[in-house]
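Problem 12. The chain below contains 471 residues. Write out its predicted structure in token notation.
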Amino acid sequence: MKKLASNLIALLVIVFTVTGFTSPNSPHPISKKGNSIERKRTDEENPPKTKKLPVEKAILTIGFIKLTDMAPLAIAKFLGYFEEEGLTVNLEAQANWTEILDKVIDNQLDGAQMLAGQPIAAAVGCGRQAQLVTPYSMDLNGNAITVSKDVWSKMKDSIPEEYGKPIHPIPAYGLKPALNFYKLANKPFTFGIVGAYSTHNYQLRYWLAAGGINPGFYNSNTIQGSKGNTGADVQLNITAPPKMPETLKAGTINAYCVGEPWNQQAVEENIGVPIVTSREIWKNHPEKVFVMTKEFTTKYPNTATAFTKALIKAGKWLDDPENRKEATRILSKSKYVDGEKHVIDNSMLGTFEFEKGDVRLVPDFNVFFKYNATYPYYSDGIWFMTQMKRWGQISEPKTNEWYITKIKEVYKPEIWFKAAKLLLEEGFIIESDLPVTDGFKPVTNEFIDKVSYDGRKPVEYINSFKIGLKN
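Solution.
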């Protein structure tokens, strides 16, 4: 009997050791290195602790547009990350991008989600001028180009197929049969874009030009009123993102470039077909940015840093696959994106639906943290400036030094680094989450036309294109 008891105790010791069980009083829990369950248990026992900065302004009003890439704002609000930093944040949906810009400049908003080109344009002489700064990049990828069912019917037969489905990415020259039809019918072919200084405008123009279609140029004398259609093979008109599907359905536009959920909404309503994602035009491109005035960040530096901390935490939470379903539930609320959850799921959960029933894996359609998505790279901002010059929004020749100097007025990675290093000390992020960079990404050719881009040589990049104004 004693031998049996002794053997039983030995067996229990082995079992407890293998399973990681220890006495509640044990000072050194047994764990396997790299065991995610054990790491989570450790986090629960010793959760990271926020060290609040003495914020100068505790109550903030922040603007956004109802798109899924406003997610870091919604998550930071809903999960209490702003509160943990000592901030009371009111999120207010805005009607359009122009309204957002004006309200931030006029101090009606303390900050806002913005089109990446907006704060840059405000610094380089395009549109309304102001000193705006970007401490945080909100996401990578996230857009698509959608055509109406009528347009798709005219181009589908010319698209190569594999296993009965169109081969992606679909290049812009696949659009030419539809363009020829509209031209013979003496009808304009019109794309909807969300703003003159939007990623969507530049991505759409890039895609069209790569396929030999001229998207047109801005008249340097009338940039404010110009639609950028001089010499164009197609027309581009500005439409607010949530209005894109109904405008397409009405026939006012024939296609559009927009963020989610408005491409998937066109599929849901069976009125349109997304034909290319923005990730296929430029892999892991920057998308929206968070913007404050320079005056605000100078007057309230701790507030700006605390706000950035909350957004970084939200971005990291969003890129955990286990959190995405909860994220789409939160985003579907009327006060945020106000869309049907299953439609938001399409792009946020690693898949994307093109033609009705054609669901494909697109794991990085929305990226909120990995690949250093939240860091405001100078080279990302300079790319937008090259497109402003290429299409005539910047009219005068500029030097490489000018581009670099100007972007450093707008993009403020020093605020991001201050916030990130505090999060590192607190235990919310790890050392490998911090980029080792001087603000410039390596040279890349991950574009649909394989043209190489070096952020340090914007002039040479601009001059390398067949379609577009030279520097």
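Discussion. Residues 107 and 278 are 32 Å apart (CA to CA). Students who got a different answer should revisit the alignment rule from Section 12.3.
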